[in-house]
């Protein structure tokens, strides 16, 4: 620290310091030796190391990201007080509950949402947080003809929500789709692009949503979702589509995702790891023929998560 007042020792006065998964900075960990209690939230065992192991020993309370992570901490740190809970679960449920009102405020989506509501669950698919690399699930030449036929015949509607909304990235995504699925129209919805969804009934095509902040809410309009990032560094949030009522399919890179582990532990049949990109079309067709998880099971999860969150917060307040 260049100046004295930049040191956290001079401005952190709380008796309890809460960390989140990766916040193992030595300057912050040293608060333990100044008489403060340390609490770790969303704890995960990904990429274990000697330093991380020594850091864990400094915490009075550990809230693991899921049951599998909790088992790891209980086995390796048996003297610690450990819970299993993901604080994103109740937050996502809240967004799901407010999704209708949230989407209704976006005038650019009004026509398109009506189009989605009029379609059956087995005729629409959303690709959320997608990268150009995720188009490998469509690129396979043996299924290209089926994709083109299904989209142009209005048997399948495909919505793509890119992870990167930069103009260059979206433009590249459009170009790649044009090469992979020639003669299939690609439409864009954004704050700057007026779009009347009626055109999809007469000239079916793929829709790219160039808009941030509504992906979680849009998942409620689908029963099946592919989550991007599995051909990049790691998949993006699979909890959002799952808690929104979707069965989930994702690419192979899941080793960093505690959300994948959570769903696999709670409802293993509701998430599919795509080991072979070329099998996506057949897998999608198979998924479309099956019923999704009953909504009352998700309601039960919501109620339990709220009760557990309240219990953990009370415990933190007593530290």
Uncertain segments are: none
| Overall 3D shape | elongated
Quick check: average pLDDT?
Answer: 92
Strand order of the largest sheet: 7-8-6-5-9-10-11
User: Can you count the beta strands?
Assistant: 11
Distance between the first and last residues' Cα: 30 Å
Q: Which structural class fits the helix and strand makeup?
A: alpha/beta
Strand content: 15-25%
Number of helices: 15
Biggest sheet, in brief? 7 strands, parallel
What helical percentage do the residues reach?
Answer: 40-55%
The topology string of helices and strands comes to EHEHEHEHHHEHHEHEHEHEHEHEHH
From the alpha-carbon coordinates, what is the Rg to the nearest angstrom? Answer: 22 Å
Descriptive report:
The chain has 15 helices and eleven strands. Strand 2, helix 2 and strand 3 form a beta-alpha-beta unit. The protein is elongated and about 70 Å long.
Summarize the structure.
The protein is an alpha/beta fold.
How is the topology of this model organized?
Elements: E1 16-20, H1 26-29, E2 37-43, H2 50-56, E3 61-64, H3 67-76, E4 81-84, H4 88-97, H5 99-104, H6 110-117, E5 124-130, H7 136-139, H8 141-152, E6 157-162, H9 167-180, E7 186-190, H10 199-202, E8 206-210, H11 215-218, E9 224-227, H12 239-243, E10 247-250, H13 258-266, E11 271-273, H14 280-288, H15 295-318
Parallel strand pairs: 1-2, 2-3, 3-4, 5-6, 5-9, 6-8, 7-8, 9-10, 10-11
Which descriptors apply to this entry?
single chain; 319 residues; seven-stranded parallel sheet; 15 helices; 11 strands; 41% helix; elongated
